[in-house]
Amino acid sequence: MILEKIKKPNDIHKIPLADFEQLADEIRSFLIESVSKTGGHLASNLGAVELTLALHNVMDFPEDKLIWDVGHQAYTHKILTGRKNEFVSLRKEGGLSGFPKRKESDCDAFDAGHSSNSISAGLGYVRARDLLGQKHHVVSVIGDGALTGGMAYEALNNAAELETNFIIVINDNDMSISKNVGGMSNYLSALRTAEVYTGMKIGVTKAVKKIPRIGTAMVDTVRRTKSSIKQLFIPGMLFENMGLTYLGPVDGHNMRQMMKLFNEAKRVKGPVVVHVLTEKGHGYEPARKHPDRFHGTGPFEIATGESLEKKKAPSYTDVLSKTMVELGKTNKKITAITAAMPEGTGLKSFGKAYPDRFFDVGIAEEHAVTFAAGLALGGVIPVVAIYSSFLQRAVDQILHDVCMQKLHVVLAVDRAGLVGADGETHQGNFDISYLSMMPNLTLMAPKNDWELGEMLRFAVRGDGPFAIRYPRGTAYQGLQEFKSPIEQGKSEVLYRGTGVAILALGSMNEICEKVYRQLLDLGYDPTFVNARFVKPLDTDMLDELAQDHELFVTVEENVKSGGFGEHVCAYMEACHPECRVLPIAIWDRFVDHGAVDSLRAKIGLSAPAIVQAIQEYKKA
Question: In the chain, fewer beta carbons within 10 Å around the N or the C end?
Answer without folding.
Answer: C
